[in-house]
């Protein structure tokens, strides 16, 4: 019982984190896409993707976790110097997918909250 | 079980703590960086029994941290589990090379995490059992060594070498010999030089093996003819053989010394155990003068007691040459 409460609190904090991160990661992604501080911005997205990938599944957001893991892998591939068209396209696709999943996860949570209230 | 969990994400640490706590692991310490973990390990009053590490952390990563923990004597056997979202095989391989025992993928399944922890716990218990057995064995060995300690001048019994008997048996053998047999026999003694030093340094079991090896080297030289020999203590062996034994050449001492050198004798710590053998004069009984039948043996022993090896003689000769130059 106690663990359920702790997990519910952690889940709520995780959603808060996603809500705060989503616009920030969107900005970093746009900045990188327009060539501004590419390495720094991609590194930020990669490191946050890594954290999301590690946690999301534990709060029943498996899809978000999987897309964050894909984004992390694709960005790491590019940061290691693979800058060909395919690698860049894969990276953009996977980061966009992760951002979409983050939005979905927030919507789902909003629905749950409304139902609960 | 005292557990240390290290992850740079506070939420992951809380999740780990909650998962572990729900499975009965309540003694969990949390560190949010490698440096904090190392400090906690340094300051811990009792060592952690299991360590959970995230691989990717800013600054020092989990792999480097794992290496540093493993370098500490107290943590050589402690189970280290990597908890990682890094799906790349190379990261996991590096973690194992650094000393990790197992890994769990993030997002972790609580059941899997706890199962792996239980396995780690079993490993600890097995290690403890092995350590206790090793400790008991060492104590037993020490006790055995102490019980079997013998004085340098004590005549010990050397077994399983043809022709080698105890001193009493050797004397009894001489006493039952006819006068002509006594006349046809000679005795010669051999002494291990600086035996007291070897005795002081070697464990009783090592010393026993060394004395047996040397006895075997001596016996090997005499095996072409009848002989009987004994170890009489103080590093001295006495051999009784036929006057015409082919072994009795000017080269006898050198041949035995070669055989000893070939053995490459070592102490238990791996350092060389140098055994140099001195040979006494060959002693025989006069046909016309009486005396104790065992006198030949005692004469041979006394001669060996004061004999000097050719190696030492040449060393002394060199010193003499240097001094007189």
TrEMBL record, chain A:
Gene3D superfamilies named in the record: HPT domain
Residue intervals of the HPt domain: 10-103
Keyword Transferase carried by entry: no
Signal sequence segment: none
InterPro entries the UniProt entry points to: HPT_dom_sf, Sig_transdc_His_kin_Hpt_dom
Keywords: Two-component regulatory system
Domain of life: Bacteria
Pfam family, one: Hpt
UniProt keyword Cytoplasm, yes or no: no
Protein name: HPt domain-containing protein
Organism listed in the record: Mesobaculum littorinae
TrEMBL record, chain B:
Modified sites of kind 4-aspartylphosphate: 54
Protein's name according to its UniProt entry: Response regulator transcription factor
InterPro entries cross-referenced by the UniProt entry: CheY-like_superfamily, Sig_transdc_resp-reg_receiver, WalR-like
Residues annotated as signal peptide: none
PANTHER family for the chain: REGULATOR OF RPOS (PTHR48111), TWO-COMPONENT RESPONSE REGULATOR ORR33 (PTHR48111:SF1)
Superkingdom of origin: Bacteria
PROSITE patterns xrefs: RESPONSE_REGULATORY (PS50110)
Source organism of the structure: Mesobaculum littorinae
Claim: Kinase is one of the keywords in the record: no
Protein keywords: DNA-binding, Phosphoprotein, Transcription, Transcription regulation, Two-component regulatory system
Residues in Response regulatory domain copies: 2-121
Gene3D superfamilies registered for this protein in UniProt: 3.40.50.2300
GO BP field: regulation of DNA-templated transcription
A Pfam family matched in the record: Response_reg
Any one GO molecular function term: phosphorelay response regulator activity
A GO CC annotation given for this chain: cytosol
């Amino acid at each position: 019982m106690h663990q359920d409460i702790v997990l519910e609190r952690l889940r709520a904090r995780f959603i808060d984190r996603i809500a705060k991160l989503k616009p920030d990661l969107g900005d970093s992604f746009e900045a990188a896409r327009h060539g501004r501080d590419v390495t720094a911005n991609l590194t930020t997205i990669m490191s946050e993707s890594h954290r999301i990938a590690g946690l999301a599944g534990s709060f029943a957001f498996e899809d978000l976790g999987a897309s964050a893991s894909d984004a992390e892998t694709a960005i790491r591939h590019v940061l290691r110097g693979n800058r060909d068209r395919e690698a860049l396209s894969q990276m953009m696709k996977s980061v966009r997918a992760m951002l979409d999943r983050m939005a979905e996860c927030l919507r789902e949570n909003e629905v749950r909250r409304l139902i609960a209230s | 079980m005292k557990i240390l969990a290290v992850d740079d994400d506070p939420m992951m640490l809380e999740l780990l703590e909650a998962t572990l706590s729900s499975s009965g692991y309540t003694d969990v310490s949390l560190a949010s960086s490698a440096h904090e973990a190392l400090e906690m390990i340094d300051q811990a009053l009792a060592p952690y029994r299991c360590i959970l590490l995230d691989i990717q952390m800013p600054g020092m990563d989990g792999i480097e941290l794992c290496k540093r923990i493993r370098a500490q004597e107290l943590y050589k056997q402690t189970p280290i589990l990597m908890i990682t979202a890094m799906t790349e095989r190379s990261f996991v391989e590096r973690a194992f090379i650094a000393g990790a025992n197992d890994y769990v993928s993030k997002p972790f399944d609580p059941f899997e995490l706890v199962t792996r922890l239980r396995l780690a716990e079993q490993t600890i218990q097995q290690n403890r059992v092995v350590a206790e057995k090793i400790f008991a064995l060492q104590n037993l060995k020490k006790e055995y060594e102490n019980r079997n300690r013998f004085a340098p001048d004590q005549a010990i019994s050397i077994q399983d070498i043809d022709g080698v008997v105890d001193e009493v048996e050797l004397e009894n053998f001489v006493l039952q010999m006819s006068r002509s047999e006594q006349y046809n026999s000679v005795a010669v003694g051999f002494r291990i030089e600086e035996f007291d030093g070897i005795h002081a340094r070697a464990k009783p079991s090592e010393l026993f093996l060394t004395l047996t090896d040397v006895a075997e080297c001596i016996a090997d030289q005499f095996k072409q003819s009848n002989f009987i020999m004994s170890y009489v203590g103080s590093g001295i062996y006495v051999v009784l053989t036929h006057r015409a034994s082919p072994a009795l050449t000017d080269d006898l001492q050198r041949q035995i010394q070669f055989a000893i050198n070939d053995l490459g004798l070592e102490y238990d710590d791996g350092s060389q155990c140098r055994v140099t053998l001195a040979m006494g004069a060959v002693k025989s009984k006069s046909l016309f003068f009486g005396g104790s039948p065992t006198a030949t043996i005692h004469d041979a022993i006394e001669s060996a007691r004061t004999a000097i090896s050719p190696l030492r003689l040449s060393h002394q000769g060199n010193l003499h040459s240097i001094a007189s130059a």
